[in-house]
Design a protein that fits this description.
This protein is 44% helix and 16% strand. The protein has ten helices and ten strands. Helix 9 (222-235) runs antiparallel to helix 10 (240-262).
């Protein structure tokens, strides 16, 4: 990856920007990029710090693991320094708990903004919160050593970091239930075959494959890419006839914009 001055570098998250491409890197390989509330706040800040020139955001991680999931320190009585432990949170009111989880989810929601396309470059373990962070992105390119797993149910919890919607959309209800309820590993081959991954490559080719995909995404005019992403995202909620109407409206906007440019 190119060496650039970071826009943000804190709490295990580094953001760099190279014109139209931003790279968000998880930077705590000694802990297998385990996640914490501080990391989630840094991810949220990264999303808010993107310059308007950015069209593609790459999410990657240092080390052999993408992210081993939630740092288990969260479940200890002492929790993290300066943070309430999860045990303390559980003793709060329903409203307080809901607001806290919603704040955590903010780190996972901005990756699907209509003005960007996000790509997760995933190697090694992507477990629990790590799996959900990869699912937060529009696209996933995985190394052949990848191991996805949704372990929350095995711990007596549920996946609550926005991963359930994209998982069901990608692999269907039955397979999503089986993956979550068993907590089993999903290999690179299965991920590519079932649509969890757009592409699986040898680990040493991961960065090059993501770079090539980012370049291909930038080849289309920005406004057309934004309209197309919005059109496809909305297709899940629309009927066939509603999607036809949405297509016509989107194309009319594009044609009018192109006509104005030609005048």
């Amino acid at each position: 990856m190119a060496s650039l001055d970071p826009v943000l570098d804190k709490d295990g998250v580094r953001l760099t920007v190279d014109d139209a491409i931003a790279t968000v890197t998880l930077t705590n390989p000694t802990k297998r990029n385990a996640q914490s509330p501080a990391l989630w706040r840094a991810l949220t800040q990264a999303g808010r710090s993107l310059p308007g020139s950015v069209r593609v955001v790459v999410l990657r991680a240092e080390g052999k693991s993408f992210s081993a999931g939630l740092d288990r320190q969260a479940f200890t009585p002492e929790g993290f320094d300066g943070e309430p432990s999860f045990i303390d949170l559980a003793r709060g009111s329903d409203a307080e708990l809901d607001a806290t989880i919603a704040e955590y989810q903010d780190a996972f929601t901005w990756w699907r903004r209509s003005d960007i396309v996000s790509i997760a470059a995933v190697q090694g373990h992507a477990i629990g919160a790590g799996f959900q962070l990869a699912l937060a992105c529009d696209l996933r390119v995985v190394a052949d050593d990848v191991q996805f797993a949704m372990r929350e149910t095995s711990l007596g919890l549920v996946p609550d970091l926005t991963g359930t919607h994209p998982l069901v959309s990608l692999v269907g209800y039955a397979r999503a239930l089986e993956i979550c309820a068993t907590g089993r590993f999903v290999s690179a081959e299965e991920a590519e075959r079932t649509g969890l991954a757009n592409l699986a490559v040898p680990v040493e080719q991961l960065d090059d494959a993501v770079r090539d995909l980012a370049a291909a995404l930038l080849a289309a005019p920005r406004d057309a890419a934004i309209e197309t992403k919005a059109l496809l995202r909305g297709a899940q909620e629309r009927s066939y006839e509603e999607q036809r109407v949405a297509e016509r409206a989107a194309q009319a906007r594009r044609l009018r914009d192109l006509a104005r440019v030609g005048d």
